Amino acid sequence: MLNLRFSIGLLLIMLTGCHQGQYKSLIPTENVGERSLKPIFEDRFNSYLFKANIQVYTKKFSGLLVTKQTQLGTYRVIFTTEMGMKLFDFEINQKESIVHYSIPQFDKPLFMDTIKKDLQILLVNGLDKNAAEVFNDKSGLLVYKYPFDVGSTYYYQGENLSRIEHAERNKKKIVFTLNNYEDDFPQNISIQHYGFRLKIDLTNLQKS
Amino acid sequence: MSRKIKIYLIHFFILLGFGAFAQTPKGFSILKDPSSLKKSLIEENQKINTTESDFFQEKYLSVLSEKIESKGSFFFKKPNELRWEYTSPFEYVIVLTSGKMYIKNDGKVSRYNVNSNKMFKGINDMMMSVVNGNLFENPDYKVKYFVSSKSFLIELLPANVTTQKFLKSIQMTVNKTDFEIENVRMTEPGGDYTNIKFLNRKNNVVISDAKFKI
User: Fold this and answer.
1) pTM, full prediction
2) 10 Å Cβ neighbour count for B14?
3) Which of A189 and A7 is assigned the larger pLDDT?
4) Nearest CB neighbour to B105, from listed A62, A68, A205
5) Residue B123: closest C-alpha in chain A
6) What pLDDT, on the 0 to 100 scale, is given for residue B211?
7) Are strands B50-60 and B29-30 parallel, antiparallel or unpaired?
8) Tens of pLDDT along A55-96?
9) Chain B residues touching residue A78 (CB < 8 angstroms)
10) Contact (Cβ atoms closer than 8 angstroms) between residue A186 and residue A199
């Protein structure tokens, strides 16, 4: 009985959580001015170090996430524990992603594909720039819409890139929140999935 | 056996020979009789009831031009209480006490039962062995001993195939005068490593019980 009640509760939460057609209120615009989309990881061949908390279902992992641009359009992403043990290491280029290393717990196709997709979106990598549509939302933010995977990704650009949403069939699937900008770089990035219990919180530790 | 195969075999053994030669760490030579070193390590360890030390950790990743540096301190009290604490560039505390492991991350404390989790049991045993100085007695590792003018180097190679997948070796540098571990390096199969250097080590000072509670 408790299970049934819990399931109904969950269903209700899920239903109310789905803002169907929320992207229909976006107004197409051509008045972009100087506010073009500013990806946070620009082509500077820099490395970035984050404290990362990853929650998959009920399991929590914490550690350090390193991103490094190795070539134009190619990034290496490595996750280690605080004590230095490597958990996964992969490479993302514009065409594919290569897993260099992973501990068995992470080496699951669903998890790896999901996390790679998250990073592609965050890195604004491999998107067809010519296919972008530009909108204004209610609060006046510019919204860049790109076709990505089987859905669309919306980049909300104010003074900085503040939010990214990935939607499939007009339902939001992933929400990225980018906060506390310092030197044009967000100190906190949160990635929340809907429909798959995965949450990633990143805190910038240093910029080199 | 054809001449060609013989040549191949000779090459193979020459390469194997070089391989063995290359395995001796730079500046060190093989310590032929490690029995007195083992004895001294055990004797020194018996004199110690508590230890506290700062540490400096460097993570080398071949893709990065710079190492990832972190700092912290550790506190150890016999028989098996340990606080391992990072203070920079993030705050993170691990406390191991009477079969329980506590982790404080971003201000939140999580508790784990060490014996119910293989991975935590492994971490627990390894950390305890490192601070206790008796990792070389662990049957899960094949041990090699080296010596230089200043220090001994104890190299542990995991015997277990599962461990070999993520750990190639642990190298501990031991001071020749006081037999204390100065440095621990854990190397992964791909060559990336974590190096932990111990600084300001103090033995047998009073450590408050509060250090092992979080």
Assistant:
1) 0.82
2) 10
3) A189
4) A62
5) A83
6) 94
7) unpaired
8) 988 888 899 999 998 888 889 999 999 988 898 999 988 888
9) 61, 63
10) no
What CATH architecture is B14-212?
Clam (2.50)
Please indicate whether, in this complex, the C-beta atoms of B66 and A82 are within 8 angstroms of each other.
no
For residues A124 and A132, give the distance between their C-alpha atoms in angstroms, rounded to a whole number: 12
Average pLDDT over residues A126-147: 86
Give the span between the Cα atoms of A125 and B213, in whole angstroms. Answer: 45
Contact criterion met (CB < 8 Å) for A49 and B59 = no
- Tokens linked to B115: 């014996």
pLDDT at A16: 42
Q: Note whether B89 contacts A205, CB cutoff 8 Å.
A: yes
Q: Compute chain A's Rg from CA coordinates.
A: 18
List chain B residues with CB under 8 Å of A208: 66
- Chain centroid to Cα A127, Å, comes to 14
| A86: nearest CA partner in chain B | B166
Q: What is the pLDDT of residue B54?
A: 97
Chain A contact present for B62, CB below 8 A: no
User: How does residue B93 score in pLDDT terms, banded at 50, 70 and 90?
Assistant: very high
Nearest to B149 by CA among B122, B177, B130: B177
Phi, psi of A114 (to 5 degrees): -65, -50
Q: How far is A205 from chain B (nearest CA, A)?
A: 7
Contacts of A132 (CB under 8 A, 6+ apart): A37, A144, A145, A146
Q: Which residue of chain B comes nearest to A51, CA vs CA?
A: B90
Do B194 and A85 lie within an 8 Å CB cutoff? yes
Any idea where the domains of chain B sit in the sequence?
14-212
Say if residue B135's pLDDT is above 70.
Answer: no
Q: How far is B165 from chain A (nearest CA, A)?
A: 9
What number of other Cβ atoms are within 10 A of residue A88's Cβ? 21
Residues 75-94 on A with a CB inside 8 Å of B are: 76, 78, 80, 82-86
ipTM of the complex as predicted: 0.79
What are the structure tokens assigned to A32, written together? 């972009």
Among candidate residues A77, A47, A83, the one with its CA nearest the CA of residue A62: A83
Candidates B64, B86, B106; nearest CB to A53? B106
